[in-house]
Design goal:
heterodimer, A: 150 residues, alpha+beta, Aldehyde Oxidoreductase, domain 3, five-stranded antiparallel beta sheet, 4 helices, globular, B: alpha+beta, Ubiquitin-like (UB roll), 3 helices
Chain lengths: 150, 84
């Protein structure tokens, strides 16, 4: 398991290659790449800054990956989340999961992402034409995480 | 002493990012601590009022009102998270 919280950008291809290298048992990698959009709640977004809680962020992400590993038959998972100042089209988050077959990889990847959205202590502050604002948590994200409790 | 950390919108609304306070002996859990902070009045009373959406972590684990606290703990108060 690798968890990285960083300001720097990352190379998706290089990360996936590193995740699967030297393990011929891997038959599937599911990855989710999150990007900064230029619109939110109907307003143009010029950029955003991401704050986090150093220490707890990594712990929370590790716990989420551990839960995914306990629930699905996966080999490994990688989570990279950027912090600091970001612009529209920038990469913001990567979750990648390796397994023997696609079903487990898809499910675990989506589970990790849904829990990251509601459990990992990150906060977005957007720059819009009417000034900077903190992004509000969404009920739809809470509901996405809750469906895994069934 | 306990260490209190505030993040994001709450950090700005309360005007502080971190502080250390002596834990009064009668304060034994998070509910007691938030009552103590609300008694500061102003933004504290408003932001930490019943029904407001905020989260609390004790030593970097999510907590609730019944979570016990003790001297030396790191307690963080923050808005619902919005990463990803």
């Amino acid at each position: 398991m690798a968890i990285r919280v960083q300001q720097e950008d990352f190379d998706l291809g290089a990360e996936l290659l590193a995740l699967r290298q030297d393990n011929p048992k891997i038959g599937a990698i599911a990855s989710f790449l999150g990007l900064v959009r230029d619109i939110n709640e109907g307003d143009a977004v010029a950029g955003m800054s991401l704050e986090h809680y150093p220490g707890m962020t990594e712990k929370a992400l590790e716990r989420i990956v551990e839960q995914a590993k306990a629930r699905w038959d996966i080999f490994d998972a990688l989570v990279i989340h950027r912090v600091g100042d970001l612009q529209p089209t920038d990469q913001i988050v990567l979750v990648a999961v390796t397994s023997a077959h696609r079903g487990e990889a898809f499910a675990a990847c989506e589970f990790i992402m849904d829990y990251l959205k509601t459990e990992a202590p990150f906060w977005k502050r957007e720059q819009t034409s009417s000034g900077a604002r903190w992004v509000d948590a969404r009920e739809s994200d809470e509901n996405a995480a809750k469906r895994w409790e069934k | 002493m306990i260490t209190l950390l505030y993040f994001a919108r709450l950090r700005e609304a309360l005007g502080v990012s971190t502080e250390q306070i002596d834990l009064p002996p009668e304060v034994r859990d998070i509910a007691g601590l938030t009552a103590l902070l609300r008694a500061r009045g102003g933004a504290w009373e408003n932001e930490l009022a019943e029904g407001r959406a905020y989260r609390i972590a004790v030593n970097q684990d999510m907590a609730d009102g019944a979570t016990a606290i003790k001297t030396g703990d790191e307690i963080a108060i923050f808005p619902p998270v919005t990463g990803g």
